[in-house]
Amino acid sequence: MLKVYGDYRSGNCYKIKLMLHLLSQPYEWVPINILRGETRSEDFLKKNPNGKIPVLELEDGSCLWESNAILNYLAEGSEFLPTDPRLRTQVLQWQFFEQYSHEPFIAVARYIKVYLGMPEERREEYEAKQLDGYHALNVMEQQLLRTPYLVGDHYSIADVALYAYTHVAEEGGFDLGGYPAIRQWLQRVASHPRHVGMYD
């Protein structure tokens, strides 16, 4: 059986959980506490030398890491990864956008607030994340005003990648009230019959 090493509150880990549920793929969840340094243990570093979660351990004991790479592996041959090269490239565009223009701001602001409890020494950093986080939301809103999903008419791993931290963006201080297309998209994603919530 597949094993997922992760923290249930982490959006990057949630991506993998959500994808496995969308595929009806059984798995074992192995909880990892990042605040206790469990990703730096000798055993964990054998699974991912970069010392980060999530990690997907395959049936043969080999491991995959980096959440969006894992999504591509899991979705291969499914309805969630288009076969058309142009559409597939657009999926990658959104995955790169998520890691470089979305996650560093929305996820990090949430981490400071939710995981760390907003320590005073990181308040300035937290506030600095807001501007670029809203920019990322603006980019998504523009696309979702044009198409129901990020890559056209079909739910894909681009949506999984960006749903993970967007649906909990308010936990990082972001107000989604001014983003009607994003809010409708969040409802659309959550309405999938095999959807599972982050805290489920």
Automatic annotation (TrEMBL):
PROSITE patterns: GST_CTER, GST_NTER. InterPro entries: Glutathione-S-Trfase_C-like (IPR010987), Glutathione-S-Trfase_C_sf (IPR036282), Glutathione_S-Trfase (IPR040079), Glutathione_S-Trfase_N (IPR004045), GST_C (IPR004046), Thioredoxin-like_sf (IPR036249). It comes from Stutzerimonas frequens. Residues 84-200 form the GST C-terminal domain. Residues 1-82 form the GST N-terminal domain. PANTHER family: GLUTATHIONE S-TRANSFERASE-RELATED, HYPOTHETICAL GLUTATHIONE S-TRANSFERASE LIKE PROTEIN. This is Glutathione S-transferase family protein. Belongs to the GST superfamily. Gene3D superfamilies: 1.20.1050.10, Glutaredoxin.
